[in-house]
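Ex. 9. Protein: Sedlin.
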Amino acid sequence: MSFYFAIIGTKDNPIYECEFGTSKQGGDGIARWPEDQRPMNQFILHSALDIVEEVQWVQRELYLKTVDRFNNLMVSCFLSAGNIKFLLLHDTKIEDPIRQFFTDVHEVYIKTLMNPFYEVDMRITSMVFDARVRAAAKKYL
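Predicted structure tokens for Sedlin:
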């Protein structure tokens, strides 16, 4: 299983992106997207933003679950209170581990926001942030 994760800012700009594979069931954590699929991942996530904007006003929870599908891929979404969108492209229906992953990443993102040198919608380039996102992915996905 492969995953593509992105954090989208309030201006629909990508703040952070990464891809990884599963570490569960003997996986090695390396993303194995088909070569023709890899360039489409970012497009699929950004095309789901319109649906996220519709669904966010209907549901009261921050975890919106699966909001869009493209062929055999699903897009899951988690919203922060500041309208930052956490999007995950995946090919399996595993709701609870995805929710736990989003919760951990949201906590790391909140800690990043508390940094006085970080401004909302600024690209996250911290290697520590990346390591913590990948650790959460390894733990839950």
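Check your answer against this statement. The longest helix spans residues 95-113.
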